[in-house]
Amino acid sequence: xxxxxxxxxxxxxxxxxxxxxxxxxxxxxxxxxxxxxxxxxxxxxxxxxxxxxxxxxxxxxxxxxxxxxx
Length: 70
Description:
Layout lengths: L1 E2 L12 E2 L15 E5 L6 E7 L10 E7 L3
Antiparallel strand pairs: 1-2, 3-4, 4-5
């Protein structure tokens, strides 16, 4: 999962990795993702699915990150 954004002056920020997938996700195209603005702080909250490492006991994980663009 990566997050990025455009500044007010129109410059795209460098993407930042927040959650690294550890294996190939081969369960179809069921990918759920979303992003929203925090109404209190003005920061962004992003969520996306990712494939955790082998041996975790999970088929997928949910990455959640908050970030700001400046």
